[in-house]
Structure formats: structure tokens, C-alpha cells
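Justification of resources, computational component.

The compute hours requested in this renewal are based largely on the per-chain cost of generating structure records like the one below. Each record pairs the submitted sequence with a full C-alpha cell output. That output is archived, and it is also reused by downstream analysis tasks.
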Amino acid sequence: MDMSEQAELFRLLLVGGGHAHLFVLEAIIQGRLPSDGVALVSPSRWQYYSGMLPGLVAGHYRAEQCRIDLEALCEQAGIVMIIDSSCGLEADRKSLQLASGRTLGFEQLSLDIGSQTDLSWIRKPGNHLISVKPMDRFLADWQAFSDTARRRREGRMVVVGGGAAGVELAMAARTSLRKSGFSLPVTLIASNGVVADFPPAVRKRVERELERLDVRAYHGKAQAEGGRVKLDDGTELQADLIIATSGAKAPRWLAGSDLELDHAGFVRVDQYHRSCSHPDIYAVGDISARPGTPLMKSGVHSVRVGPILAHNLLAARNGDPLKVFRPRRNVLYLISCGDRRAVASWGPLYASGGWVWHWKDRIDRAFIDRFSG
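The structure output for this chain reads:
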């Protein structure tokens, strides 16, 4: 398709309002990146900061303290915001399809859309299940459940997924409902163990935090049917609510995008975070995969790659040298543990306690403030 046939053509399309794209918007606002012909596509005007989600569930924050107004940032940057969902990409034709039926053409495109939750373990979905993504829908579903549980003073909850997101939400939910004066049982299912990607000392510390809050953890693979969760050892659990935090999955529409993908369907990128097959397309965050450089699916890396992405988008346009994104060998992770406690992990080192939560709280609030001016 000739680009002149496109109904709408942009010099740069930012698809998704993820952490890295916030730094691109900041660069435009500060005049370091031109605003002409730029648009941001996102299904919502709000970008919730994932690092504060457990605190929001636990009742430490209000929703407006944990989100960034993308529409206000776009207005400040002088760029177009399109509130819509992406549903198709033809990279060879430089064409993006939206759920509304619109088609957008582009010269450059950057993907920062995160990932979807892997729900392959669901045999028969029911109204008991909620996924942690998309976040705004999760918050509405969680609020509805917690209101009902408080009114009835009963309920059983199962969190499926033993990564940092799963353990944080299990402890946050336990803390939230304890504040209402009754004890709602919360169970965590960790197929490969609790925070299996972290060092042994961190895993043990997190397991102790779960025990402290009386969150029981099961190991094993889960299958869910309605409000029943069955493990591969035969254990069956009944649940009034099942929260899915069970791993990252790439959107299906990427499969027909012409982009080079890895075995799991994520976009293969080079050291500059350009697509390995289409150098005018960039991908960052959970949606990207760097051959030979395995990265944990975490917002930590998205935050660090943001300034590099902003530089490279302009450098590529001007024919200037690109910057390499070099992930750090050791990265600071802060895992919240319900009632204003947290565990810090940096390589083989760890710490825990109330002071770690307050440290995390300061970092999180500073991130929101940076993009809410």
C-alpha cells in the first residue's frame, strides 16, 4: 500500500502508555524531541503505575495517587492522543489497525504496550476470575468483590501466580480485608515456587512474610473451572475470587504483524531496541525480547530504557548514532508485603522491614510526581 493512500499518516506513533513512553513524552515537552506528526495510542487516558497497585489494593493509596493522566501529558506535549486499542499491525506496509476501525500510517512506530496475562490454565472461565491486566478493569472488579466480601463478611480468594506480582497482591488483599475486622482466607498458587526468579535468601524472606500474614502457598500447576481450582497433585480449592497473575503472554495480533518474533510471540529487538526485522519500529518493556539478553518482565527495565528510546527515536530520524541500552547486571527490586512492609533485592543482597516500604513509597510517589506536573 502506498503511504499516500493512508487516511491518517504520522511521523511517529507511540503505541501504549507504558513507563518508557512517559520519558518520550517528557522529551517532547522539554523540546528535546519534535512534536510535529506525533500521536500516542492508548485504550485509556489513565496509566496506572504497576509498582503502586499492591498499595492501592491494600488501602495505602487512592486511585488518583497511582495513575498518570496521559491525555494531559499529550496536551502539554502538543501531540495527538487517540484513545483506542490496537488490534493489528502490518509492519511491511507501516500500517496500524485500531479496534474502532481506524487505520494509521506511520514513518516510525514504538511499541510499549506491556503484555497480557497467560490464562491457558483456565479450562472454563466464570465470573469468579479476574486478571491483573488491564489494570483499570482489575481495579473495578477488585472493588466489587471486596465490597461484597465486607458486606457478607465472608469469601475465599485464590491468587494464581508466584511471581512478585502474585505475592504482592496476595498480601495486599489479605491486608485490605483484615482492616475490615474479619479474616478472609487468601491462598497463593506458585507453580514454580514463590518468587522463583529471585535469589534463595529473598525467596525465604518473602515466604516468611506470607506466613506472617497467614497467606498459604501451594506449589504446583493449576487448572481452573468456574470457582474451583485444581492442582496437579489432586488438591482442590474453592474460591469466590480467583486473581490471575500467571505469567506474560504476547497479544495475538502481533503474530500477523510481519515483525520478527521470538518463540513466545514477543518482538525481537536489537541492542538499540529496534525491531530485528523492521528498523523503523521499536519495542520496549514486556512486549520486547532481546536475543542473548534475557530480561525479567518488570517495569524496572522499562523505566531505564525510556531515556534511551527517546534519544534513539530522534537520532534515527536525523541519521545520528544510536545509543545502546545496557541492562544492569544487578537491579533493585522492592516487593511490598501488605501492611507497609517490603523486601528489597539487589543481586545477592536483600533487606526487609517497614523502612524498606517507606523507601519504596518515596520512589513510587516521586515517579508519579515526575509525570504529573
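Residues 299-318 form the longest helix (20 residues). The chain has two domains: 3-115+250-318, 117-247.
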